[in-house]
Structure formats: C-alpha cells, structure tokens
Amino acid sequence: MKSRGEQPAHQYLQRESGAPLNERLYWDRVIGFLYGRLRERAPLLFRAVTGSRMTALLGFVNYDLFLGGRLTGGARFLKEAGIDLDECLDPPESLTTPRRIFERKIRYESCRPLPEEGDAVVSPVDARVIIGSCATQSALFLKGKLFTLDELLGKPLWLCAFHDGDAAVCRLTPELYHYNHTPVAGRVADLYELTGEYHSCNPQAIVEVVTPYSRNRRTVTIIDTDLPQGSGVGLVAMVEVSALMIGVVEQRYSDQRYDAPRPVTVGMWLRKGVPKSLFRPGSSTTILIFQKGRVRFSDDLLLNQRRAEVQSRFTLGFGLPLAETEVRVRSLIARPTRQERSNL
Length: 344
Fold this sequence. Notes:
The protein is an alpha+beta fold.
C-alpha cells in the first residue's frame, strides 16, 4: 500500500457496462492528513474536527459562503462532476452555490423510473454500493468491518430482529443527488436518532476508522413491509448516516414528487420510491439492513463485488476484493425470497 502522502486511486464499477471508473475524491489530501498524522499525533484536535460544531462550521464555509461557491467553481464544477442539468427540476441558473447544487431536486419519475418488477427492493439513493451479510460465517461478511450491528441499530429489540441479516451499504459522494427515497413500501414501526461523531465517508477514512458507520450520528427508520400492499420482505432498517460536513438529515417525506413534505413519524405508511429525507449537504451513507433470508441481492451486484482487477481502497484496507457498483436511486437492488412472512 502506498504511503499516506501518496494515496492510491479508488475505482468503482459502472453498473450498465461493468467498466471500472476512477472516483474523483474530494478533499482527499485533507482527509489523508486528518485520518493519518492528525489522528495519530493530535487525537484531541481530531475529535474536535469530527465533532458536531466543527462539521457544522465546515459545512457552512464550504456550502453557504460566497467563498465556497468560488472554490467549487460553479458551472465548471457542474461539468466536471458530470451533473445532468436536464434532469434537474430547477433551472440551471438557480444552481449558484454548492448547497443549491447538492440539495437539487430531479425529475425522478422520468429519469429514475421504478423497475417493472413490482416486488423490487430499490436503491434509496444515487450511490456506490457494497452488499453482504451480517453473519460471521458468510463470505460477504460486513459486520465488524464497516459497522457492528448492535452499535449501528442501538436498540436490543431490533438487534434481535436483524441478527445475521443482510446489508446494503450505499455511499454517496458530494456531486450525487442527495435525497433519500424509500426502498420498500410499508409502515414505520420505529424512528429514532443515535448520537455520534461525523467521520468522513471518503474510502480512506472508512478504512482507517474501525466500524466507522457505528460511530457516526445516524437516524434509524424501521419499516414493517409484511402488511397488505407492503413489499413483503419483513422488517427493513434504513439507517441514514451523517458524516463530515453533514450536520442534518432532514426528514421530508412526500407521497407525490416533492409536494407537501412532512416529517416521518411512527405509524406512517410509506410508499416505495418516493422522497423520504435529505442529507444537508456533502457526502454520506445510507445503510439498509434486512432480516435473515428475506431478500436476494441482484446477481450483478454480487458478481461485481468480487472483481479483483478493480483498484478499490476497500480491497487494500480489508484484504479481500470489495468493489463498489454505482447504482441509481429507485433502481433494482434485491428481490424477496418468497419465504413465509415474519411474525416479528
């Protein structure tokens, strides 16, 4: 592995073609310094940087101040990041600051159509995804690398329900669309926040910090899908993880488009594929946890993950091929296994 001063590239796979692409890593040298020298030599200062006050200040400077817009480069940034202005609801001339770019709305019904399969479990975000199992005997064991289930979920009741379940870790990058959409249809059984830090979602930072997603501030939504008109995949935990410069995950559920947004509450019925919340702004992660044996992930996601030729920092950090696949919000990521519905 290269020294911290010369970080290796990080690649992910384009889903449609299967081609490996180089990720543009924002603030990579800064992240390398924070999670290298600063973390080792000045741990108190490192903890301050990853705390709530500093992440709010960094977010304000980067995404709200005029200087932040100058540094981002406006139209140049839009072009380099590959943001498709034709899919945006708001006119391009209104995207004048980094915050407006990162919090943009899109014509998701036409540019992110739901799969024809009515039983599809869909991606909650535009993201790069890793999938696997929480069972220690699984070849795709994720628990203990990216998170520990008991810390991630916080409540013993849900830890029991999701024991040895399956997970999809969806990592957003700053240029991507930052609304979370509902991956399934069902009723909200629980909703709660867990306090924590604000670690970066840069791949190098994830590798450096043990079980980083268990440590960050996060919002957990438990969705019961074993109901009439539900998706029939048991209980689903949707964990929205805050990160460096992500001070808030704002709940903004809308049944139609982005109309009349309202907070998500316990007992609320959620339609599949509609806006649920917004990361404000930067990069972050959404994790889906499924009960054991209730879903089968899409074959291409399973195969892509083990492609050893992809230059992934996760492979270097965890010692096994672990390549991400880029997925689009509302696209198919799993199907139900058609086993008997859970009584939990």
